[in-house]
């Protein structure tokens, strides 16, 4: 009897926990609806009466960047009368992404927007769309199989180039630089690293002293930075560039704890925390991937294709360097409520 | 001589020898790194290493208990993340309620771990699978609660739990004790007492050593297991708070993959995966070995590729040496 009571209590506790979780998400959902007023320059096309149903498969929503992207797409779904977006989370599984695309095709969507998970692995989704005769627009990331209508996104390498330029600006083009890399072998690590290395050649007075992987994690980047701070006394580290903002924030934590606030730190992504750190003058700069703009371009391109226009094959959006309070504030406002 | 033998059972002697062998491996590693890098033995670096192992150390202590019962818990990363997220979000709304926020975070993790406890103890599902279920549920709840984004912690006292010192190191020439080290010390002492001085502690060993025999001697094995998973959940909660303080934010994806580091520390520390055998002290040394390895390789500027290979080899060597000394 006692045991039964206990297990009942446990189940109740579980349900409560779930409800608490859902409740919170609802709250923030409302927030983002409220915020819509701040930046709703909806670009509704002429109301032709036809509503296009567009399937969207994305990388895992657990990442802040993808979450921003999903929020932007939700907003577009609300703002644009002629589209209805059906969004699915691939949960970081290529296999799930492929079957999601199949399911959406079976549902009879008019077109598919794909934010692919794997350069090679997601390629069969391209085949599936082609066989079904459904236009495919890839956005933010692209597949090896280039048989899609259009790719909308950025040149990842240019974010590394931009980060390096921001570092150079922050330390007057001379000094000792340290690099915190992403997960070794990850596409973002390879391309961002290549951009940084390429642009570094243009600054002969900047010396790259060490590169270590922080595995895209704040905690790991902090441990790496702490080791460097112990190894190199004040004056021997001028700047740290990280392959993403979370690692830059980890480096910032370590520098602050060690009272080495003279070190300039630059990250990539434009996470809310990083934007706040730029606003507070704690981080020198971040490179913002303007995913809201890319999503808008992608949806508009899909509508244009469905309206019968020829696909543009490639639309490149620019990264946005953010090193001042005003620039950071602009993106904070855009993304608040996330 | 005879007297000593009667006090110490054979198994106890083996355990002592094992801890010394581990200690030896650890010291050898430290000497090697000290020679390779002059920074290694500086005060700020040593303090840094202790700080870095605190999260993993607390998680590994909880994992030790679970593994001694013959189980395993893969959900510890998300459990720690839940504690960080819950406490950070409560503080966002009510900035003054630090203690209630921290307690809610820890309790949230413990409540989640009841799910594993229930599945293992009551439904008799294998711990590996039961904790996989919890891992997935906890990940989802952490993401839902946080709406997928990190929540910044601005409460200075909270940040101090992860980043602070017991006293200002600048006043004592860099010598101080980081707060997270105090936390892990208290946790280790309390769990050591629970494991070695209480009836419940003896029951943990008994259930892990031979469950049927334990049940036959009147131990409620299901309850012991359930309590152990919940206790582990509490410890995950504490580790999550320390981690959140250290990274100054409650992140729903924090501590992802930490279960492997924790399990490694437990095994290197001499706890048997089959249950019934294990010591808290060994686990702490195991965590230190991993922490020193990470730190030393970074100081030497070894590239990430080699770091992974070296770590794998050292883990195997440590366990092999340990097994050898056990046989002797």
Automatic annotation (TrEMBL), chain A:
Residues 26-49 are annotated as: Disordered. Residues 1-20 form the signal peptide. One of its GO terms (cellular component) is cell envelope. Pfam families: Peripla_BP_4. Residues 54-309 form the Periplasmic binding protein domain. Keywords: Signal. Residues 33-44 have a biased composition (Basic and acidic residues). It comes from the Bacteria. InterPro entries: Peripla_BP_I (IPR028082), SBP_2_dom (IPR025997). PROSITE patterns: PROKAR_LIPOPROTEIN. Gene3D superfamilies: 3.40.50.2300. It is found in: Cell envelope. GO terms for molecular function: carbohydrate binding. Belongs to the bacterial solute-binding protein 2 family. This is Monosaccharide ABC transporter substrate-binding protein (CUT2 family).
Automatic annotation (TrEMBL), chain B:
InterPro entries: ABC_transp_permease. One of its GO terms (molecular function) is transmembrane transporter activity. It is found in: Cell membrane. Keywords: Cell membrane, Membrane, Transmembrane, Transmembrane helix. GO terms for cellular component: plasma membrane. The keyword Transmembrane helix applies. It comes from the Bacteria. Coiled coil: none annotated. It is a multi-pass membrane protein. Pfam families: BPD_transp_2. The chain crosses the membrane at residues 20-46, 58-91, 97-121, 128-146, 175-195, 280-299. This is Monosaccharide ABC transporter membrane protein (CUT2 family). It comes from Faecalicatena orotica. The lineage of its organism: Bacteria, Bacillati, Bacillota, Clostridia, Lachnospirales.
């Amino acid at each position: 009897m006692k045991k039964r009571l206990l297990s009942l209590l446990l189940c109740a506790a579980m349900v409560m926990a779930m409800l608490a979780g859902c409740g919170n998400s609802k709250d923030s959902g409302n927030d983002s609806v409220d915020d819509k007023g701040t930046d709703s320059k909806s670009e509704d096309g002429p109301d032709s009466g036809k509503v296009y149903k567009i399937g969207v498969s994305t990388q895992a929503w657990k990442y802040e960047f993808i979450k921003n992207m999903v929020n932007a797409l939700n907003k577009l779904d609300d703002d644009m009368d002629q589209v209805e977006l059906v969004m699915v989370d691939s949960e970081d599984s290529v296999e799930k992404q492929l079957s999601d695309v199949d399911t959406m095709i079976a549902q009879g969507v008019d077109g598919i927007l794909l934010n692919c998970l794997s350069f090679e692995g997601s390629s069969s989704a391209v085949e599936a769309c082609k066989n079904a005769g459904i236009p495919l627009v890839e956005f933010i990331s692209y597949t090896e199989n280039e048989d899609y209508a259009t790719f909308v996104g950025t040149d990842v390498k240019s974010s590394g180039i931009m980060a390096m330029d921001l570092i150079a600006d922050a330390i007057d083009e001379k000094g000792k630089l340290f690099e915190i890399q992403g997960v070794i072998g990850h596409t973002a690590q390879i391309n961002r690293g290549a951009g940084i290395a390429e642009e570094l050649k243009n600054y002969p007075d900047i010396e790259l002293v060490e590169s270590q992987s922080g595995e895209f994690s704040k905690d790991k980047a902090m441990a790496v930075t702490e080791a460097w701070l112990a190894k190199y006394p004040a004056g021997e580290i001028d700047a740290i560039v990280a392959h993403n903002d979370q690692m830059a924030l980890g480096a910032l934590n370590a520098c602050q704890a060690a009272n080495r606030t003279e070190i300039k730190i630059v990250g990539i992504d434009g996470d809310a925390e990083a934007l706040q750190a730029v606003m507070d003058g704690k981080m020198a700069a971040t490179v913002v991937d303007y995913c809201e703009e890319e999503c808008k371009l992608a949806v508009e391109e899909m509508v244009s294709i469905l309206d019968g226009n020829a696909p543009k094959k490639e639309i490149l959006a620019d990264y946005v360097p953010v090193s001042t309070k005003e620039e950071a504030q602009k993106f904070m406002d855009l993304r608040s409520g996330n | 001589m005879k007297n000593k033998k009667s006090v110490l059972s054979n198994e106890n002697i083996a355990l002592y020898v094992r801890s010394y062998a581990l200690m030896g491996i650890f010291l050898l590693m430290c000497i090697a790194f000290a020679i390779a890098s002059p920074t290694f033995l500086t005060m700020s670096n040593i303090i840094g290493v202790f700080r870095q192992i605190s999260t993993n150390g607390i998680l590994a202590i909880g994992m030790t208990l679970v593994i001694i019962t013959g189980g395993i818990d893969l959900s510890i990363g998300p459990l720690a993340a839940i504690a960080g997220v819950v406490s950070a979000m409560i503080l966002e709304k009510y900035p003054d309620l630090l203690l209630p926020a921290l307690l809610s975070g820890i309790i949230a993790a413990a409540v989640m771990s009841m799910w594993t406890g229930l599945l293992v103890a009551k439904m008799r599902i294998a711990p590996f699978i039961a904790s996989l279920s919890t891992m997935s549920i906890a990940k989802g709840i952490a993401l839902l609660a946080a709406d997928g984004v990190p929540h910044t912690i601005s409460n200075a006292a909270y940040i101090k739990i992860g980043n602070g010192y017991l006293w200002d190191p600048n006043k004592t020439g860099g010598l101080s004790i980081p707060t997270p080290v105090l936390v892990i010390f208290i946790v280790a002492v309390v769990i050591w007492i629970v494991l070695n001085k209480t009836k419940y502690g003896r029951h943990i060993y008994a259930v892990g050593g031979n469950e049927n025999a334990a049940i036959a001697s009147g131990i409620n094995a299901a309850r012991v297991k359930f309590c152990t998973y919940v206790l582990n959940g509490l410890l995950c909660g504490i580790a999550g708070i320390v981690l959140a303080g250290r990274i100054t934010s409650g992140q729903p994806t924090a501590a992802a993959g930490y279960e492997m580091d924790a399990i490694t520390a437990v095994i290197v520390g001499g706890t048997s995966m089959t249950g019934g055998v294990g010591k808290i002290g060994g686990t702490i040394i195991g965590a230190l070995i991993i922490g020193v390895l990470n730190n030393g390789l970074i100081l030497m500027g070894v590239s990430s590729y080699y770091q992974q290979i070296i770590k794998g080899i050292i883990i195997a060597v440590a366990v092999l040496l340990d097994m050898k000394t056990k046989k002797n």
